[in-house]
Structure formats: structure tokens, C-alpha cells
Write a structure and sequence with these properties.
Layout (H helix, E strand, L loop, with lengths): L3 E5 L6 H9 L6 E3 L3 E2 L14 E2 L2 H9 L3 E9 L2 E8 L10 E5 L2 H11 L4 E7 L2 H13 L6 H14 L2 H7 L4 E3 L3 H15 L1
Parallel strand pairs: 1-7, 1-8, 2-7, 3-4, 8-9
Antiparallel strand pairs: 3-6, 5-6
Length: 195
């Protein structure tokens, strides 16, 4: 039986970088699950790679078809942005193991849908000052930086990933992303133990 490795962490903890490194680690043979979002595409993103970019109506249609595994909405300063995992044929746990980036809500809802034994949490942490510095650097690189949204996300993360919420979700192991290579080695060991 395959596993779904769910990378989680506050914004700017390096999840995207670690995700790409794990995805490219051929020995692991991890398949990817591409989530869906209604938010605008960012500079450097590609449809079908980071996300499937859809509109509200398409998401509503997927809901009506009973294909939404989990969904969450964020009331941003630019309007409501929705993110979802869709039962669209991407996952076959009898044949493969998978990798995706999610939140605590994603993790708990995937556990409810696939069973807790099928989902392995990989929670990445970075000290808040370094995280904020990384977020600011990333935002500056955007064609139209959205600094107010960066601040909203940063503050929302404190609540979303509170110690109480982490405990409630059963997240015990944490991977410190101070040094990318060391963090990757620890995550690779965790994945190999669970494959």
C-alpha cells in the first residue's frame, strides 16, 4: 500500500524547494498530487505543475460532482482564494506513493478520506524572523508584489499552525529547515522508513 507524504509548514519555510528536491529524487519514485486553486497564477508558476488554476464555477462543478476531497478558503485582501484536493484520478495508493504540499486542514482531511495510516506528515519549521525575510525576498521578485497579503499570510500562519492545532492533528516530528541539505537528509530518512 502506498503512502501520501504531506509537506506542511508556515509560509516561507522552504516547502516548495524541498518539494521539488523530493520530487526529483528518482530513487523515491514519488508521484505528485497537483492541487487546485482559484487564486491568480504567480510569476514562475506553471499550470498543472504547482496547481491547476481554475475559477469558482469550475470548483463549484467539481463539488457538485462529489470530487472534492478537501477544500479551504482564505479571505485575502484580493478576495477569497480557494484551494482544494480533487478526486480526479491522480491517486492510486495500490500502485504508488505520493507527495504534496498542504496545511494542517489538508492533512486531517486527507487522513479522514484515505485513512490515517496512508498519510505521513512532514512538518517543516523555520524561525519566524528568517521566514519573514524569505517571504519579503520572494514577494519582491513578483511583478506586482502583494505585501499586504504577505503580512496577512504571515499572521494567519501563527493561528493555523498553533501548538494546539499541531497537537490536535497529532504532529509530533518536526524538521528544522535551517540548513537545506541537513533538513533534506532527515526528511529522506523519514520517507524511506515509511515506504
Amino acid at each position: 500500500m502506498g503512502k501520501i507524504f504531506c509537506l506542511m509548514g508556515k509560509s516561507s519555510t522552504g516547502k516548495d524547494t524541498i518539494y521539488k528536491m523530493l520530487r526529483d529524487e528518482k530513487a523515491l519514485q514519488l508521484q505528485t498530487i497537483v492541487p487546485y486553486t482559484t487564486r491568480p497564477i504567480r510569476a514562475g508558476e506553471t499550470e498543472g505543475v504547482e496547481y491547476h488554476f481554475i475559477d469558482e464555477q469550475r470548483l463549484l462543478n467539481l463539488e457538485k460532482e462529489g470530487k472534492v476531497i478537501e477544500q479551504r478558503a482564505y479571505d485575502t485582501i484580493y478576495g477569497i482564494w480557494r484551494y482544494a484536493t480533487i478526486a480526479d484520478g491522480q491517486v492510486n495508493l495500490s500502485e504508488h506513493s505520493y507527495l504534496l504540499i498542504g496545511t494542517l486542514a489538508v492533512y486531517t482531511q486527507l487522513c479522514a478520506y484515505y485513512g490515517k495510516d496512508a498519510i505521513v506528515p512532514i512538518y517543516i519549521e523555520v524561525e519566524d524572523g528568517l521566514r519573514l525575510s524569505r517571504a519579503l525576498e520572494r514577494e519582491r521578485a513578483q511583478t506586482k508584489p502583494q505585501y499586504a497579503e504577505l503580512c496577512r499570510r504571515f499572521l494567519a500562519d501563527a493561528e493555523d499552525f498553533s501548538e494546539e492545532n499541531l497537537e490536535r492533528a497529532g504532529i509530533k516530528r518536526r524538521f528544522q529547515n535551517i540548513d537545506k541539505e541537513t533538513c533534506m537528509e532527515e526528511i529522506l530518512r523519514e520517507i524511506n522508513v515509511n515506504l
